[in-house]
Amino acid sequence: SAVISQKPSRDICQRGTSLTIQCQVDSQVTMMFWYRQQPGQSLTLIATANQGSEATYESGFVIDKFPISRPNLTFSTLTVSNMSPEDSSIYLCSVEGVAGPSPYNEQFFGPGTRLTVL
Amino acid sequence: GQQLNQSPQSMFIQEGEDVSMNCTSSSIFNTWLWYKQDPGEGPVLLIALYKAGELTSNGRLTAQFGITRKDSFLNISASIPSDVGIYFCAGPGKGTSYGKLTFGQGTILTVHP
User: Fold this and answer.
1) Would you give the end-to-end CA distance of chain B in angstroms?
2) pLDDT tens digit sequence for B57-89
3) Do A33 and B88 touch (CB under 8 A)?
4) Nearest CA in chain A to B87
């Protein structure tokens, strides 16, 4: 599996500001994903970060609120814009694995960024 | 959208006991994945299941892909304190786009020494 790192690991931010989260992978991967995990909740996919094209967003998530960059095959950023307390969550990036017989391969997750908005 | 119903929501057990948790769906899943999340960490993949009926073990963990492709269970034998955490089932539903995983609500496991 790939080694995934995220920066920052945690942050406390003021309402109305923006935070950019970085995700770095130690190998080239085609697919990178961003998830949100609200307090005490499960994981929800925000978007798929596509290299060389715009991210693909899931229902309920929009580019203006969560702009994503994917400049190369090992790096992606997620920005949480104009934050409110409701954005307080853990934000996780993940990458697809390369093993397995199914075209829907396993995903491996970074350690997450714990965001608190005051 | 597709949903995974995971149960139980939480479990409190004594060290050495066996644990069983399961996931069900109203729609077919092509792959079942079981993850564990420790506090302050991202989920770690425990077991991946690809075929209906498949039974796979990873140490003290055993998971099965239901014959109907709409359910899966995870068993942990002889639990130890480090088994504490949140366990999630996940999978890409039939017909969903590549990489889109749906997660269950999670089972919070507490192991008393």
Assistant:
1) 40
2) 999 999 999 999 999 999 999 999 999 999 999
3) no
4) A42
